[in-house]
What we know:
41% strand, 5-stranded mixed beta sheet, Methylamine Dehydrogenase, Chain H, disordered N terminus, mainly beta, 1 helix
Amino acid sequence: MTPKNRFSRRFAVFVMSVVLPMAGAAEQLVVATPGSWPISRGDAALTGTTPARVPEQPVLRWQIDLGDKIVASPVIHEGIVYVAAVDGTVCALRLSDGERRWQFNFPAGIEGSPLVVDGVLYFGDLDGTLHALDADTGNFRWQYATDGRIMGGVNWMPGNPPLVLVGSYDDRLHAVDAATGELVWIYETGHYVHGTPALSDEVALIGGCDEHVHGVHPGDGTARVKLAAGSYVAASPAVRGDYAYVGHYHGEVLAMNWKENKIHWRFTPADEDREGAAFYASPAVTATRVLAGDRDGVLYALARDSGNELWRFQARSDIDSSPVVARDRVLFGSRDGRIYMLSFSGGELLWSYHIGSPISATVAVVDGWLVVGAGDGSIYAFGAGETGD
């Protein structure tokens, strides 16, 4: 970190922490609930799963234009949707009707998805600044400066102090004090860190443009594991137990045993006419399956233990929108401008909606609602039909 950035960050921390003190810290890893989708992949492990129930046939309830394309995934907590746009617009919208609670416009664009936890909204911008705002009012808590763009999302680790973790194009994973924004530790990788760190109690896992997946101790940033993926890792890994799951640019999905520092299985689509389309979206991982979409527009369901293909679904264009599993439903968007809902068991199409603008953000899911941003700059909220389905 340069002296200039260090000074500006500490000055911002002093000013903003005086203006508004922090609330009490949460005590467990971030997790999706029926009424909350607090992080882009639902939980701190980035599994892309939720116990929420989705409507059988969702209908569009409201649409809000933010003015510029939305690639960051929205988050939802206590009936409020938090969303950021590429032009730096950040706003809080009431889930029931889209009414604006607050809105601010930042000078730098935002592509990384926000996180809401313990009354604070965290997100990074393309100038490399990590922001903390009061979730109720939008008032500043603090800022922290990295030395590169922040393209991915933010995660949160309980402890003393609780930590906010974010990757940067300065080739580092940063951990800062969630209450003050003060640097706690930095982990150096070999190239840009593009995605969101995945967390368990024992490890923080990140992929990057150095073609490796790194595992570090989340409390102090010491190295735990470094596994060669075989190509650039733009997607965020998902962690479940001793295994991490991630796709890469050369068309493979990997299962990695991070404790034993080895690859458990590799999945490459068995199609002679395909060259191996990039997996840019992050996988969803359940107890039995891994769901992953590629830039040929194919969503694959793989057996979690073996990597064997169970079924596939063909969309009409690239899938950069990471899939979500909500009970027995799989939801994702595509650059064909559609939201898809499939059966988890067999991959049958159950519902789709044509927005008409590319969708790369993850669909946020809480009981009775689906919310997603699109390339046309609008945020769309779908709820149950009039019959209450």
